[in-house]
């Protein structure tokens, strides 16, 4: 599946791995002596804050179409920065919790595929369907 290009750097970078990001984040924290502050709890709370900042990019905009038509480069750049913050905190949190994030993400996709069979949920945004749960 080819993804639409809505901003110059929005084709997926194939040469960057989670492991590379994890290592660079660890080095970044070490150089600043910040590891002492990076407990799972603190990282989770920081992640929530960054998710809030990400949501602010969409606040009061109504529905936003794919590709962000009508958004200025300034607003797209702000969104990119907040998305990066969320990703980096999530990677750092997974490292501190000793969780292989790419592995569990793939496992979760398999769980969701079994939980929401395409034959039953296609075209529906509902997550609780009587035919799935018998209620």
UniProtKB/TrEMBL annotation:
InterPro entries on file: DCTPP
Keyword RNA-binding attached: no
Domain of life where this protein originates: Eukaryota
Transmembrane stretches, start-end: none
Protein name per its UniProtKB record: dCTP pyrophosphatase 1
Subunit organization: Homotetramer.
Pfam families: MazG-like
Function, as annotated: Hydrolyzes deoxynucleoside triphosphates (dNTPs) to the corresponding nucleoside monophosphates. Has a strong preference for dCTP and its analogs including 5-iodo-dCTP and 5-methyl-dCTP for which it may even have a higher efficiency. May protect DNA or RNA against the incorporation of these genotoxic nucleotide analogs through their catabolism.
Cytoplasm recorded as keyword: yes
Main location: cytoplasm
Keywords: Cytoplasm, Hydrolase, Magnesium, Metal-binding
Catalytic activity entry: dCTP + H2O = dCMP + diphosphate + H(+)
Source organism of this protein record: Effrenium voratum
Gene3D superfamilies: MazG-like
């Amino acid at each position: 599946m080819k993804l639409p290009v809505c901003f110059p750097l929005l084709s997926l970078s194939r040469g960057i791995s989670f492991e590379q990001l994890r290592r660079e984040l660890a080095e970044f924290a070490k150089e600043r002596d910040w590891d002492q502050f990076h407990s799972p709890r603190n990282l989770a709370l920081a992640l929530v804050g960054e998710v809030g900042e990400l949501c602010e990019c969409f606040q009061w905009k109504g529905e936003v179409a794919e590709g962000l038509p009508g958004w200025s480069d300034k607003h797209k750049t702000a969104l990119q920065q907040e998305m990066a913050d969320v990703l980096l905190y999530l990677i750092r949190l997974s490292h501190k919790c000793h969780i292989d994030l790419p592995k569990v993400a793939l496992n979760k996709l398999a769980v969701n595929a079994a939980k929401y069979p395409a034959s039953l949920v296609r075209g529906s945004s509902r997550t609780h369907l009587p035919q799935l749960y018998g209620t």
